[in-house]
Structures are given as C-alpha cells and as structure tokens.
Amino acid sequence: MDYVLETRGLTKRYNHFTALQDLSMHVPKGAIYGFVGRNGAGKTTLIRLVCGLQFPTEGSFTLWNTDNKDAKINLMRQRMGAVVETPSLFPYMTARENLQQQYRVLGLPSFDGIDELLALVGLADTGKKKAEHFSLGMRQRLAIAVALCGNPDFLVLDEPINGLDPQGIVEVRELILKLNRERNITFLISSHILDELSRIATHYGFVDRGHMVREMSAEELQNACRKCVSLKVTDAEALVRELTRRGIEYTVTAGDTVDVYAQPNITELALALWEDRCEILSCTEHDENLEGFFLSLVGGESHE
Amino acid sequence: MSKLLHADNNRMLRSRLFRFGMISLMALLVITFVLDGEGEPLKGTEAGFQGLLLFLPMVCSFIIILFVGHEFGNGAIRNKLIVGHLRSHVYTSWMIVGIIVTLIGMAFSAALLAVNCAVEGGFDELTAKPLIIVWTVLLCELLCNAAMSLLLAVILPGAKGAVVSFIFQYALLMVSMIAMEGGGVAWVKTLSYFFPQGLMGVAALQAAPEKPWMYILCSLSAAVAFFALGIYHFRRKDLN
Q1: CB contact under 8 A, A105 and B79
Q2: CATH architecture of the domain with residue range A228-286
C-alpha cells in the first residue's frame, strides 16, 4: 500500500515528560485518517513533529517515502498543508490578504486561484472584514483555505471542529469530504469528538498516553462495533458448521469464541450443537459504538 | 529565501506597527529640535542627532521584536515551516527585514535632520568626512542593535521580549546620559563600541569618534555573533 505518512518508533520527550512513546502509524494515500485520543494523549505532539515545528527525540517518519532526516523532506513538505491547534492567521488582514500573504510565502507567481479558494471555503463575500472580526468557524475555514494554498496533496488538521457550532461542524465536515473526493487530498485529522470523526474517516489510529493502541480501517471498525452475540463454546468448529448451515454471519474471534451477527434462538442452537457434543459455555451480547470501542481499547479511567 | 523575504517585506511595509514606529521616531526628533534648538545654527540639528542615537535603536528594536513576536503569537510562523522553509532562511529573512527597517529609519532621520539644518542654517559648516564616518559607525552599531533585538525576539517572543528590550534600551540610555554628564568611564566607553546610545558622549554630527574602525569592527563582530547565536537557538527551538 502507498503511504503518505509513516512513523517508526517516534518518541518525543520534554524534560521528564514523555509525550510520544515509540509510536508507529501509517496514513494511506487518499485516506481520511482519524487520529483518535483524549486530551493529552499526544495527538498534537505528533502533528507538530510531522509539520516540522518540533523535532523527535527518537524514531523517524517518512513523507512520501522520504525520511525526516533527509534534506529532501522540505521539498515533500511543500506538498502538504496544515492547521495546527488554533488557526494561524494575521488578524488585521482580510481573508483575501491572508491568502495573498501565504501565496507570497509559497512563492506563487500570481494570485490566481484565491477567488476559487475563498468560494470553496464559503468566504467569498467577506470583503474588507478583517480576520479578527470573523467567527471561530470562519477563522477555521480561512485557516483551511490558507493550508490549501499551493494545492497540497496532504492536509493535516488538528481538532478542526473544536469550538464550532453545529452549522460550522457540518460545513467543515462537508468541506473535508469534498476535498477528499474531488481533489483526492489525503487527510490526517486529530480529534477527540469520535461521533463526528466516524462520519468521515476511512482509517483510524487510536492513541493513548503517547502509544499507538491500534490502527484499523473504517470497515474493520464497523465490524468491531457491530451488534453481535459472542458465544464461547467447547467446539468452535461445530458452531461454525451449524452457523454456516443456517446462513448466519459470524467471525471467529478466538479459538473458542465466535461473534454471531444475528439474534439466533439460543435454545435451538444449543440443542443442535449438543448433537455434536458441543456445549455453550457463555453467551454475551455486544452493542458497541465508536466511543465504547475506544474506551474498551484504552480503558475507561481518566489520565488527567 | 527570496519568497520569504518578499512576504516578510510586504507584511512589514504594510503593517501599522512599522508606520506607527516611524511616525513616533519622527515626532520624537521634531520634539528634540524644538526643545534643544535655541536659534544657533546647527544647535537643533546636533540635538536631533543626539536624540537619534537614543530613539532610533529603541524604535527599531521594538519594531523588530513585535514584528517577529506577532508571527509567534498568531501562529503564522507555522505556515512558513509547514510548507518546507528552512529555519535558517526564516531567520535570515527576518534579519534582512530588520536591516531594511533600520536603513529606512536612518534615511527618514537623516532627511529630517537635513530639513532642520536647512531651516535653521548651518549647512556651510558641515564637512563630508566626519559626517560619513559618524553615519557609518552609527549604521554598524544599529545593525548590531537589530541582530540583538532579533535574538531577543526568538528567545522571548512577543510582549516579554519587548519589555526586556525596553529595560535594556532604557538602561543603556541612562548609563550613556550619566556618563556624558560625569565624564568618561571605561566600561561605558566599551558600550559605545557596540551600541548607538554609547556614542552620545563620544560622537557628534561634526565630530567622529577616535579610531572609528574599532567601533565598526566591534559592532559588526557582535552583530555576526548575535546573528549566529540566534540561528543556532532558532534551529533547535520547539515551536507550538
């Protein structure tokens, strides 16, 4: 698989505090990668390292297969844009002037494309209004527009919907989906608002206390979160045979445990299994959402 | 690097900070002309020059620190690093903008002094050689001041840096004024090799300091040292 970003054993320490510990992650090309973790888990630290704002203590990362210690990494960075924490804008400039300033930073020969960018983020009619008078949602969208200057292939957004009202959240979500579909931009989005992330992400990385707990695709997560009955039996093969015969969907999760994606009649099933001398040892119903799954991965206790 | 310089210059020249700084400088010089010029030819202009030694480094220092501090404060510096600009280039671009601010400040001040000189008379008494030497020494010391201000701006971004700069500049001003009144003190003379305020006791419009090459050498060496130290620090600094 083609990866835009790969990290290998990335570690970041601040004096005696370890913000990231041996973190490895893989962001596939074209994905919307949801980087999930609670406050202080290390999400922003990782983003700062990837964006070149800070330096790793140990480990490395690659952008389009170029190592971070390679001098060419700065060329690769020209293909990315980012909004890290708060929107990075000049408050006394208008939306257009902010974009013009970023065009100069990028050395773009003309200001062509600024109108299109402003229209894309819904700020075409802000005129001479300064960024300092924008609402938080408008500033967030302008920051995304600044990050989009130069047509990047990879966009990193750190908590993009923090503090936005419901309308703003919908606008940012639709913008991300539009950019991903129409321009094939890869996204790395950090967030602790799981419900919102689950509406757009194609891949997930769950981080806790600086460690990557698990990486998975949205499909795998969907399966993991599906409503199911988990059966622990003495002979899993007998159960599999019986479920196949009945046309019921299932997944063998461990040697003796099978997740059944239906509501079977347990008495009938137990009687059928008994003919093969197979006993049902336990029967548990699972109905997890993303939040539940995340908590089951990282544990429920607070780390604050 | 040229992209950064273009962007930084554009931002500086359009900023309210720069315009306000230059207007303040001009206003302070005019006040000096009015307060200290007593009708004698060149008296007000000379007083203006002494005022320039005090105010120009202070104003330039504030502009540089607040200009750079603003990028740290609103996070705009991230927009440069994220798209792959080298930190050494970012710092060098700031330094060049600082030098441009200094040159513009000097040019405005020189023009104002010339106008005042033309109004109160005394142009005939001016000779080129000491003028050129004094302004060259002043330029070198202002470059040292700019490099030091930029170093301060990256170590203590924003208001903290401006406060420390104000305390430092004010201390230099007081030390120089006290030394000018009380006669030469060795360590104050040492200051004059590096900072424009120190020139108050040892230079005037028509009186170049002794051994001007020493002033040029010292101030330029210090400027290079501050610049190198600034790049070293900035390249290792973790940014938020």
Answers
A1: yes
A2: 2-Layer Sandwich (3.30)
